[in-house]
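Pipeline run #58 for the internal structure catalog. This entry was flagged by the ingest filter as a single-chain record with no existing model, so it goes straight to prediction. Upstream metadata was stripped on purpose; only the residue string is passed forward. Reviewer on rotation: M.T. Logging verbosity set to normal.
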Amino acid sequence: MTGRVVVVTGAGSGLGRAMATGLLDAGHHVVLSGRNWATLEETAGDHERAVVVPADVSLEDSVHDLFRAVADRFGRLDVLINNAGTFGLCGGIDEIEPADWDRTVAANLTSMFLCSREAVRMMKAQSPRGGRIVNNGSVSAHTPRPESVAYTATKHGVSGLTKSIALDGRDFDICCSQIDIGNAATAMTQGIGHAARQADGSMLAEPTFDPRHVADAVVYLVGLPLDVNVPSMTIMANRMPFVGRG
């Protein structure tokens, strides 16, 4: 078998679809996971190396079944791309209901914990051992947008999760990276290209960039040997208001 075995969560659309397609085109075997079978099949297209395994990665049993399917099909796992997530509801902290907070935490942070937990177990036990985990963070892991308390908190949590996995995985040849993405042009960021609320209360149309550049970055990370890690990477639209004061 040539190419690495890669699991991509949230592979049915947006950045997940771009990453999965890029990895398939690079010759890897890609397990496409998400909640919608139809959109996963669209991502798979006619790629012979694509395997569709629907899962809700916020649920422990569903995640266990996903990685059991990977083990049964390939016998190992080389890379996990933790991409699934949601922006959640917008609002100040006094406007967010606990149930909405819980859903955002489950989708963005608990899902990464559950998937990484299963992946690390496989990577420790397989021969040769080791592997790579890439977590989709966000520039919001550094600087929030207005009225994004739940999303921002989860993305800061992803940073801690990434560092902990990288530290604890060293002795087992497990690398963990975080890729922080700013304004890739997907359905989630469609409104930003028209008008996005700024810290001073104004509305500003922000630039976006082609998600294929994110895919290229992920393909690069996946291709690295396990004695090399990139702890963090930021890829963003050059003119988006992030660096400095705007």
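catalog note: The mean pLDDT is 95.
catalog note: Residues 98-125 form the longest helix (28 residues).
status: ready for reviewer M.T.
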